[in-house]
Amino acid sequence: MATIAAARTSCQIATWRPLVRVEDAAASSSSSRCGCCCGGETLVVPQLSSLSSTYGETKTALTYRNAAAGSASSSSWGRMAYSRWDRPGRGKRDRSYGDKGKRERSDGEKNARCGLKNFRHSSFSSSSSSSSFSSFCSFSSSSCCGPRETTRGQGLNDDKLKCGRRSWIFQCNAVPGGEDDGNPELESGTAPSSRKEEDRRSAAMAAATSPAMAAAAAASARAAKPRDEYRKIEYVYNPKEKIDSFAQTMSTFENLPRSLTLFSPCKVNVFLRVTRKREDGFHDLASLFHVIDLGDVIKFSLSPSTRRDSLTSTVSGIPLDERNLIIKALQLYRKKTGARQYFWIHLDKKVPTGAGLGGGSGNAATALWAANQMCGGLASEKDLLEWGAEIGSDVPVFFSHGAAYVTGRGEFVEDIPSPFSQDTPLVLLKPPEECATAAVYKRFNMAMASAAADPEKLLDKIRLEGLSQDTCVNDLEPPAFQILPSLRALKQRVAMAGRGRYSAVFMSGSGSTIVAVGDPDPPSFIYDEEEYADLFVAEARFLVRRANQWYAPAGTGPGWASGDAAAAAAYEQRPEDDGCRGAQGWGEGDLMDLRLPFSYEA
Ligand SMILES: C[C@](O)(CO)[C@H](O)COP(=O)(O)OP(=O)(O)OC[C@H]1O[C@@H](n2ccc(N)nc2=O)[C@H](O)[C@@H]1O
Ligand SMILES: Nc1ncnc2c1ncn2[C@@H]1O[C@H](COP(=O)(O)OP(=O)(O)OP(=O)(O)O)[C@@H](O)[C@H]1O
């Protein structure tokens, strides 16, 4: 049975029509003899008719956005469709996709055989390299000879397109139903003449977040190019496959979020043993990691860009370009999955950098998770964990469920039940000075390692007896304290002053954060002494996540705790909400720009 798909139909940004359900293709499809010269059989696909009849028109427009531009189905589409732009009076610009397209290009004379010589159009295309749409289609269920227009027919021919085969002509009109005030991106007469032009119009689309702006953008697009200069036509050789894939696309992606706001936690290393220096310069570790509920908030939104992600942040001092671990993660996700979706990202930074808390690594892991959510789950969590190791040693651990015994460089993550109560209070103290991870490792030598502390025994002891000072061993403390002697003093003073209050005081990762466990408040000298006036002080708790959900800080209620969509919705409703829609925000009035899971590159 063909997949049942919900599709939105619309032709205008400002006045979206309601959803239309495209019903089972296979059950009701029928075939009829083609009335054209070749007498071939033409498949009539009823759901297209029903779509049409919904509006009492022979043409109905569908435009759709797919969050995961670039998913696996792209290749099959590429093989099925051939398209190009012709510019009347200015020569032709052909684009073919896949082998089939190439073969078809020079095959014009076959048109005569299937009667397509009477099919007139001056130009046609699927979306080609359009950045923000893939198809804007009028369906005509007339016959394989297509809509009632005539064509010079170049590019139409393929064995499969002969009328004797079950073939389908799928006409894409830029202006659905001939209406005039459509989406500027989709109007006829606005074929992308260059990438620059496309980008300009993508920007116009992106800017068109209100009906008024949309109308202005449409007017500007109309002014920029004469109308009816172009038509877009797409040929689909296997209608059932096409409809099914379309239906599948819609089914899969209708529930995907267009924006997602996620909590991006950090971690502490409850103990950290360095077991060996490796040939590649890295060090093997054996460490009990635990995710904690100090974290950043990152908002991811689908971007119409086909070239880059855009990152903004509440703090200065971290790179916002390709050096940022969020951008690295999104690039890696696209590379691994073939997805072509780009993002707008806003990072609300709370975790200090250079703190040994893996804040940047947590951001990277969160970005991988978000991309996967917004692109239709193309990767498993195991994939994400493995890919995370390519970004940084601390990234994989965030794909545990919160507590993990980690070995190797950080890539072997043994997910373990948290040995701690989630109510255990922690206080984090970080001086303004950062500890550069590479510098700390560089200064480390094996003579500094606490050889007596077998990591597995440490883990067992913690599991049996809970945290104690003697189990919180960190082999990176000596080199970090060499680099930052005041850190040693801080740790000692906290341990002394907190005797009886804290069950353990230790440095996390490569520093410079000192963690005290057992009380949410720092010792009073931290507040009393001028020396510590600039200290970062934060209360935290151990944090775990549920299966198939991302981390949500404890105490934030069912919003964060019940999953990404609800979390995002809760976050969206904050007073300082910037007006963007939350996850799954497919509300009326949304810009309906549903992209297919692929995009064509010129
Ligand atoms: C100190 C820890 O935070 C403990 O969790 C991590 O080991 C550091 O992880 P990270 O910040 O993700 O570090 P990466 O970005 O992978 O590496 C930064 C640099 O630290 C050194 N490095 C890092 C990890 C490791 N296991 N051995 C190392 O020697 C390498 O010189 C590397 O070039
Ligand atoms: N998204 C990001 N957030 C924070 N820092 C980032 C990010 N992307 C890149 N960086 C760079 O990475 C450096 C280390 O940042 P991070 O917060 O991961 O430090 P850390 O706490 O020492 O991490 P780790 O415990 O993994 O060593 C920063 O100085 C910053 O320049």
UniProtKB/TrEMBL annotation:
Protein name: 4-(cytidine 5'-diphospho)-2-C-methyl-D-erythritol kinase
Keyword Zinc part of the UniProt annotation: no
UniProt main location, coarse: plastid
Chain intervals for the UniProt region annotation (Disordered): 83-111, 174-208
Pathway: Isoprenoid biosynthesis; isopentenyl diphosphate biosynthesis via DXP pathway; isopentenyl diphosphate from 1-deoxy-D-xylulose 5-phosphate: step 3/6
Residue intervals passing through the bilayer: none
Ranges of residues in domain GHMP kinase N-terminal: 324-400
Domain spans labelled GHMP kinase C-terminal: 465-528
Source organism (scientific name): Chara braunii (Braun's stonewort)
Keyword Plastid: yes
Family that this chain belongs to: Belongs to the GHMP kinase family. IspE subfamily.
